[in-house]
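Lecture notes, structural biology module. Today: joint structure prediction for complexes of four components.
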Amino acid sequence: MPYSLTALDPMDSRSLSTQLADQLRDLITSGEIPPGEPLPAQSELKATLDVSDNTVRAAMAQLRSEGLIDAHRGKGVFVRQPQVVRHVSSTRYSKQRDGQHNTSAFTSDLGVMWDQYSVESTFRQVKAPALVSELLQLGDEELVLERFSVMRAGNIAQQVRSSYFPLSLVKGTPMMDPNRQPVPGGVIAELEALGLVVTTIDEEVQARMPTPTEAHLLRIPAGVPVLAVTRVGWAGERPVELVSEMVLPADRIRLHYRIELQPTR
Amino acid sequence: MPYSLTALDPMDSRSLSTQLADQLRDLITSGEIPPGEPLPAQSELKATLDVSDNTVRAAMAQLRSEGLIDAHRGKGVFVRQPQVVRHVSSTRYSKQRDGQHNTSAFTSDLGVMWDQYSVESTFRQVKAPALVSELLQLGDEELVLERFSVMRAGNIAQQVRSSYFPLSLVKGTPMMDPNRQPVPGGVIAELEALGLVVTTIDEEVQARMPTPTEAHLLRIPAGVPVLAVTRVGWAGERPVELVSEMVLPADRIRLHYRIELQPTR
DNA sequence: CAGTGGTCTAGACCACGCT
DNA sequence: GCGTGGTCTAGACCACTGT
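The predicted structure, tokenised, for the full assembly:
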């Protein structure tokens, strides 16, 4: 153990557990305890620092909530490994249209091919919820097609999303077929096949902690937030698609946007 | 108290504290305990559910880490109020160039005027760190101007960022003046005044939990992540500015991007 | 089996807000 | 002063991983 811990001070304004968490955090962020390496056992910390079991555990809980460590029963507490980061670029949309048509937004995101991932979708016809109705500029009581999808790669979910389409636009089209297989080019290509050429996409990005359901589905460990993207696809002045929320685990994903500035008039 | 709690089951696969957290979460997300309202006192939960003090506290810790509640010593535990969300749009960049020039990216973000916020910056000349050197395409040992800024509005920090400029481009210019006041039009306008017209901006968005320093500076409560944006400004083929990290509290901020699709060839 | 982390209890003391 | 949440202790039992 090349590092050492200093005694805790009951007179310090910080609590004992916070002092311990601060020390361990320094060791982790400075690289003295590198990713994948174990922290000293909780029983050892308890003995060396002469504090109670629960005090040590409180420090661990703090570091876990910051996403710095993973604990494994029977093995130990380990510095979390950085994940392989997948870059989700906004250029995915234009790439779809350059004649290739072998990727959708999701596959180009992941840099994987069609047979390496799966999408599971469920469909419903529902009255548009308030947010959907507003963003799609629908009348009261108007119906929408709701599509809830889970995208998996390597058998673990990478993304969940719920999408909405005005029913008047997609009724009777192949988009209504619940057994429809994923289409090359993704939703944008599907819509284009219906004569709805998407010209503009608005994306609104927020971050928050996952719900327990999301954390379970996407295998999100403690202390890792999600990126939640709300997207509206426009065909000219008409909103034709709404992804009310696309939820991505933030430890594996970065979003990339390129902004071209207009030359000064 | 219009709602009620059901007894906890020691035989349930979930722990007692998780069962309690789940019950309370349901009450919160369903609106039965609306934002701003207090939860039952921990002493009351302890008595009604016949569990230990620490068990109740564990449930509270869980909900706090999800960003659902705020606890106040001497008062109680309250459902967290939704924050006023500020939309940071990528169109802020083009707006700066339409002749107005009275806002920078930050002020247009907040929808506030110049005298309502303050920026505090510190400057250094340093050898470019590895990431900076790579993204700015610098040679080894090349120097950069580092600018660390804290933006405040209403006296509370809204954003911290560190920016880097190749020293060869800004040496001897007004950008080096540590006492320089904020400039209308922001960094982009500053660079343009030096003959460096930024034509393209790349933004990479990630989310993570704040460091304790960030949490303190930006007044980020428990269970709220930050959005961290890495930005590169290009003048033609040449990278002229790097914001290595712009850190924003995710409960107050959403990022908006508009993507214009090219018509099919 | 010994060692790891996870949960729970009972009891103590402290810091803060309100009346 | 009383009720609130925050920290800490000592001790118990459980669940999992390794030898």
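Point to remember: Chain B has a mean pLDDT of 86.
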